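#dry-run=false #mode=assembly
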Amino acid sequence: MDYQSMLLTGFVALYIFMLAAFAGFEIIGRVPAILHTPLMSGSNFIHGIVVVGALWALLNASNLTQQIIGFIGVLLGAGNAAGGYVVTERMLEMFKPSTNTKSKE
Amino acid sequence: MQVAFIIDSSYFIAAFLFIYGLKQMSSPRSARAGIVLAGVGMVIAVLASFLYSLDVRPEAKPMLQTNMLLALVALSLGLGWAWWSGKKVAMTAMPQMVALYNGMGGGAAAAIAAIELSGYQTHGSISLLLAVLGGLIGAVSLSGSLIAWAKLDGRINKTLRMTGLQLINGSLLLVLGGVAIYIVWQGGQVSQWLFLAFFAMALLYGVMMTMPIGGADMPVVISLYNAFTGLAVGFEGYVLNNPALMIAGMVVGSAGTMLTLLMAKAMNRSVRNVLFSNFGAAADDGEQNISGSQKPIEASDAAINMRYAGKVIIAPGYGLAVAQAQHKLFEFVELLQAAGVEVKFAIHPVAGRMPGHMNVLLAEAGVPYDLIFDMEEINSEFKEADVAIVIGANDTVNPSARTNKSSPIYGMPVLNVDQARQVYVIKRGQGKGYSGVENELFFADNCQLIYGDAQKVLAAMLQAVKNLESS
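#status=ok
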């Protein structure tokens, strides 16, 4: 199989950015205020994906400076992802409907 | 099958799980499942990224083993620390913790930019521009979030306000923009010292931008930096030709912007106002002529009145959480419910430290979310309520926001607790609210104040009703 990663440049990148931006707006626009804090924390978790980019940079480091910066990058990125996940999960776990009354929605 | 194909498909799955998970998070029923799905996506993407080691740049080949080791150590350290700190942080301290994690993400984006720029090989000027911009935004988000964290955590109490600060910040931003353009103009072939100066100035700008902002506005700022980090991650994703970073970063960038606007709107402040004006500055003028007096009442008397009421609405504020009284409160509510009283919670959009924070704090105490109502849903019901009880809230229930044009909080939507037949306010002392404004509610004819720590007052209320039931 002759597979090559596609190059996401120029208009392809622009389309990705545009559609992703609309997706973000649409998802948040309909959220009830009760979930704003967990959602901010949840979106904070999602940009923790930056750890993947930092990993690439560190694995491709070819001198000491790059290794140091890469190490810091992976460390910070991992903290972002793991911390974001834990606090979001802790908050959302607590949302429970009452058992006796009929729940709305 | 080729490695690139495995990596690409894992990123595709991760991107799908992120968006689908975020969507699930937008309803309280499925929210828990949503974050778990997004978490699965993250694990897949990170595992797949180790396949990069099979195909690194030629010049990095000799160092690959060291780099692998470094990556594993950094990953476990970051993960371990964040997991531990996230598990033990108190719910009241959640906003600053989010700020801290967010700053780390911004720092990671800036680190990617720094590496890319230090060994820059031409990928075109768009890529270079986005690397520089992503680095700038990421660095600002890092230092700004750290200041926000320190302020909310009470480590910095000073609010830096000096004339000319706007001017200094403005010039700093201009210089940063100039250097960014110069770097792109030179095709990235500039002295390493210039890069260093660039990042140092960006960090400084983040500090200077956040220092003048007061504590009440901090959540809006954190949300803004959250959007910033997303944007920076998206830009670095372009540089690395990584669709997972591009999509996740841009989704968070726009969702965070939207959330910031929603929060600012709930506080009746524009984002511009939050960033460039001082909240407390205008609070002194506007002499208030409030007639009437503050009337105290014993906790037990108030409790027994509520026990025989038909409908009680509770308006909690940050003071409730600070006193850690939400568990006692819910115990009291269950007692009232058992006695046939209809109880509802009314949540102002900015109750707590950021929108939705109070919901989290109540959920922690086990309050079911269908007892909790947003301001718009419940404001018309105060007229029919026998008792409205305000616990640790002040500005969010101040009726002068509706009527007094000279008040600094004029125009902010408030809970109409003053329309209830009887209002009780649990308060520690005779102090003013966060905005420094006197609250005319406390002087109203139908309002009585219960002085004391919310936890102790609620304990006394519980006792009073229990004594009544057992006698």
